[in-house]
Amino acid sequence: MTSYSTPVASTSFPVSTLVDRILCEFSLTMKLAALFDAICIFIGSIIVGLAAQVEVPLGFTPVPVTGQTFGVLVVGMALGARRGAIALMLYLAEGAAGVPVFAGGGAGIVHLVGPTGGYLFGFVLAASIAGFLAQRGWDRNIVWTALAMTIGTAFIFALGLLYLAQFELPTGVLAAGLYPFLPGAVVKIIVAAGVMPAVWKIVNRDAKTSTSTNT
Fold it and tell me: Which residues, given as ranges, of the chain have pLDDT below 70?
């Protein structure tokens, strides 16, 4: 019978995120490391913005099905709690400032105070939680990655539904903001559960190859 170990990875380097693991391969000064952090945070916000353009509008609810949550949680896991949260705050700031990064090329502060506002603010918390779990090795195998993604997704839905309930809807809040999105959420969790551990294997394999070459 297959058994699954605890999420903490058994490696010679401290448990960290994918970005931290890549950073370990370079000897950077504090200033360059800070610049690297800033670049990763900016790229993370762009990735979420691009994922948001994958949109399927639903006529009976103001909340569309998008690729945002996938981007949010993968960025959070790759960057870690602090950088992930900052990347999503930057994403919200970009959209509020008029950059068309919200779902379907939307922009403006109206999206933050409208029916989707709770989901958008939930992204910051979800990215931080996913990053926190990734820093403890939860993105190293399929089962733990799926669990981390599920927890992050639950927080997005929780905040989104709480805020959505303040609006008048043609259907109930669960019918408008939860049930239609559960199948897509499951698909995104499954995809991420395959992607994150696979990327870790590639990164660790390349690191071992580089070490063998240098010795």
Answer: 1-15, 59-63, 206-215
Q: What is the pLDDT of residue 171?
A: 84
What is the spatial distance between Cα 189 and Cα 18, in angstroms, rounded to a whole number? 18
**Would you state the pLDDT for residue 1?**
45
What does R_g of the chain's alpha carbons equal in angstroms?
Answer: 18
**Model pLDDT, residue 77:** 96
Name the CATH code of domain 18-205 (choices 1.10.1760.20, 3.30.450.40, 3.20.20.70, 3.50.50.60): 1.10.1760.20
Structure tokens at 122: 């939930």
pLDDT score at 210: 56
Cα angle 146-49-53, degrees, rounded to a multiple of 5: 90
pTM summary value: 0.84
pLDDT of amino acid 24: 76
